[in-house]
Structure formats: C-alpha cells, structure tokens
Amino acid sequence: MSSVYPRKSSPSASTTTTAKASEVDNYVSHTLKTTKPLPPITWSNLLNELNWLNVAILTVTPTVSFVGAYYTKLRWETALFAVAYYFFTGLGITAGYHRFWAHRSYQASKFLQYFLAIAGAGAVEGSIKWWSRGHRAHHRYTDTELDPYNAGEGFWYSHVGWMLLKPRRKPGAADVSDLAKDPVVRWQHKYYIPLILLMSIAVPTIIPWLCWGDARGGYVYAGFLRLLFVHHSTFCVNSLAHWLGSTPFDDKHSPRDHFVTALVTIGEGYHNFHHQFPMDYRNAIKWYEYDPTKWFIWVCSLMGLASHLKVFPDNEVRKGQLTMQLKRLRETQESLAWPSDSNDLPVVSWDSYIEQSTKRPLILISGFIHDVGSFIEEHPGGAHWIVKYIGKDATTAFFGGVYDHSNAAHNLLAMKRVGVLHNGIPLAVDDKAIPPSQRLKIARYAELSSTTGASSATYSDVDEKEGLLS
C-alpha cells in the first residue's frame, strides 16, 4: 500500500500517487496492465491448450446421444421422463446454482438446498462453488477480458469455447467466502464425482428400467440426450442471451432480452433485466413472460420451502425502462430537422417587417416572422387565406380566429421562421411560440445546465434597423 499511497507528500509524489490510485480504482484496466496473459492459441500449441476433461465431456455426450438414439427405440414413457428429468436437472442450475447460490435472490430451506444441489449435479456443469465463482466474475466484469465467458470474443467462444480452451487470463476476483462456509456447498463439492455419476447416468437409467423396463432408453434419452440438451440450454445464457434480443433496461453491456432465449434456457432469457437487477429472483417481470424458474421458486415459497424472495423496487425498474425509452427517443429526435432557435434569428422591427413583406410573403405569428412562400399553393384552406395575412399579425387567426390549426400545422409553421419581431412577444412564457413537437423535447443534463438563463436577453437592446437574413 505504501507504494501506492506514499506518506511523504511532494508535487511529483502527489501526481504519481493520483495516477497510480486511479489505476488501482479501475480494477480491470489495472489488472490488464499489470498481469501478462498466456500466449495466443495457434495450430502449433492447440493440443496443449485444450481443456481435455471438458473436451471429453462435450464430445462424448453428443456422440453417445446420437449413436444411441439411432439404435434405440424411444418409448413414450421414456420421452416424458426425459423431459421431466431435463427440467429437474435444469432447475438445479437455474433456481439453484444461479438464482440461489450465485445471486442469493431468495432464502431456501435445507431440504430445498439439498434438492437443488443434487439436481444441479445431474447437469454436470461443475460444483456449486466453481460455477458460482465464475458467474459472479461474469457479472462483475461483463464483456471484459476478466469475464470468463466474455461475449466480446464471439458467440461460439461464449457458448462452448471458453470451456474447451484454457483461458488466456484468470477470471477476475469474485468473493465466494459465503459459499466456502456453506455446508451444502461444501458437501456437494466433496462428493461431486459420485453425485454426477449417480444423477446424470444411474438415476435416469434405473428409473425407466424399474418402472417400465426400458433401461437402455433411459440411459440414452433421459441420461445422455437429456444431458446434451441441459448443457446447451444453460450455455445459451452465456451466448444467445448476449446476442439475440433487445436492451430495454441498459445498453451499456451485451446482455439482451428475448422470448426465444427464455424458451431454451428455462426462463433465463430476459438477461438484460437480470444483469441490471441480478438480486431479483425473477428474470421475467410480466406475468405472461416465460420464466418457469421464477414460477418454481414462487411455488416453493407457497410450500414454505423458500422465503424472502427479493424483488427490485418497481419504481426503480420503471426508471431503467424510461431511461432507455428516452435514449431511443433522443436518437430519433436528433435525426429530425428542427426550427431555428430564437437566439439564432435576426430581430426585426415592425416597420422593417412591413417593408420586407412587400418583397416576399412574410407572416407574423406568435412573435415569429415566417416566410410562407413555399406553402401558399399547398395551404389546405386555400391560397387566398395566406395572401390575406401577408405583412400582418395572423396569431389570432392561426390559433382559432379563423381555424384552430393542428399540431402538424404548428410544427410545419415553425420550420418557416426567418426572424423575430422586436418586442413582439415574451417568448419564454407563451406556449403559442413553442411548436408541440418541442414542448416535450428531450435535453441532456449538460444541455439543461448550459442553457440556464439563455432566454434572459431582451429584444429591446437590439438595433431596430437590423434586417432579415436570407
């Protein structure tokens, strides 16, 4: 610590301290600068850089599944059991590993904890401690080189590549001290190998054998083919959920929301919401959105097996949505053409306005002078109404005296402004001077700060002889 925050202060030492402290404050950039990654993977070192245990698991599983399915008849009882067992082991990951242990989004009874620990072992995705440590790092360092399944490396890398290849960097630091003290986590970690053999192969083989005499079908379909689906279902949370869909809560990082992803991940597809509010036990916040994991946890709470279900305040969730909605509206707003600002228009006296109206079709409305030459023949009420008010004040006529014009008419009129009448109208307080499209115009905070007092200038100080700009 003394090398970062020296005790003796001097101008040079202070500058050095600030620079070093700023690096330390940004853990990611500091780690990337001060630690060296492993050499890049090439064809010459590929075999040495493969994680052979994961390679074996992820290649043997599909091989046995497809070959076994080709030679084994599928009975309807086995098919139903395989689907049920898929949800059983999948919920062990989504409701157990993910929402309970990695995020502590609810409290679970000991019975439910052991149930989820055993079910999760059947998914063969590592122990709770190992899985949760990587997932917490993923949330903390999303889309950086310290993210163990960094989506920035590509779809296939985040799907399976990160497991097949030895990582070039160690995942970022993540606190798992609570898991190290958890007796259920420690129990599962200690007996993980026998648990995965029991739950991934033995149980799905024995149950169909004892109940309807289909051990082979259970082994192939409920064992290996089911495991293949569970693997790629949960892998999609790292890949598909960062690639497909929308960002209704925040677009700073890659996580996205999509129904298809939810469908293939047992409800984990509303990933943009999840990364914004990871402590929430829900992924889907609307009742009609597909999230069986949420429903499972909720039912467990009704049965007294789960409690203290964490829900992020709805007011803050809606703020997140509003922020993104305003951002999209701002993007649309910036793509449109807007009327000239009153501060950018010349200020013209009444006499000058009358004089110039004899040379070009100028009309005064709400203190602004408009050149309507391009609109005379297009006016829906007829050209004669436009001509009638050239060189006059048509404010009353425009706002109901002759016709109470639409928002569209008001917006179009504002685009034809060419000047401001000297002492014509207190622009800051008259809504008629503001077109409807600008009354709710979105401004950034910096713009609001910089424009404070911008309308304080009065037109009485302007030279009345100034003419219109072309």
From TrEMBL:
Q: Name one GO molecular function term.
A: stearoyl-CoA 9-desaturase activity
In its keyword annotation, does this UniProt entry include Lipid biosynthesis? yes
Q: Which InterPro entries match?
A: Acyl-CoA_deSatase_haem/ster-bd (IPR009160), Acyl-CoA_DS (IPR015876), Cyt_B5-like_heme/steroid-bd (IPR001199), Cyt_B5-like_heme/steroid_sf (IPR036400), Cyt_B5_heme-BS (IPR018506), FA_desaturase_dom (IPR005804), FADS-1_CS (IPR001522)
* Gene3D superfamilies per record: Cytochrome b5-like heme/steroid binding domain
Report domain Cytochrome b5 heme-binding positions: 363-422
Tell me what topology the record assigns in the membrane.
Answer: Multi-pass membrane protein
Query: Cellular location of this protein?
Result: Membrane
Q: Provide one Gene Ontology cellular component.
A: endoplasmic reticulum membrane
- Record Pfam families: Cyt-b5 (PF00173), FA_desaturase (PF00487)
EC number assigned by the record: 1.14.19.1
Query: How does the cofactor bind to this protein, according to its record?
Result: Expected to bind 2 Fe(2+) ions per subunit.
Question: Which BP terms in the Gene Ontology apply to this protein?
Answer: unsaturated fatty acid biosynthetic process
What top-level class of enzyme does the UniProt entry assign? oxidoreductase
Instruction: Name the SUPFAM superfamilies for this protein.
Output: Cytochrome b5-like heme/steroid binding domain
**Cofactor(s) for this protein?**
Fe(2+)
Quickly give the catalysed reaction: octadecanoyl-CoA + 2 Fe(II)-[cytochrome b5] + O2 + 2 H(+) = (9Z)-octadecenoyl-CoA + 2 Fe(III)-[cytochrome b5] + 2 H2O
What is the superkingdom listed in this entry's lineage?
Answer: Eukaryota
Asked if the keyword Transport belongs to this entry, the reply reads yes
Segments spanning the bilayer are: 52-72, 79-100, 112-131, 191-210
Alphabetically ordered keywords of this record: Electron transport, Fatty acid biosynthesis, Fatty acid metabolism, Heme, Iron, Lipid biosynthesis, Lipid metabolism, Membrane, Metal-binding, Oxidoreductase, Transmembrane, Transmembrane helix, Transport
Q: PANTHER family annotated for this entry?
A: ACYL-COA DESATURASE (PTHR11351), DESATURASE 1, ISOFORM A-RELATED (PTHR11351:SF31)
Purpose of the protein: Stearoyl-CoA desaturase that utilizes O(2) and electrons from reduced cytochrome b5 to introduce the first double bond into saturated fatty acyl-CoA substrates.
* Family according to the record: Belongs to the fatty acid desaturase type 1 family.
* Protein's name according to its UniProt entry: Acyl-CoA desaturase
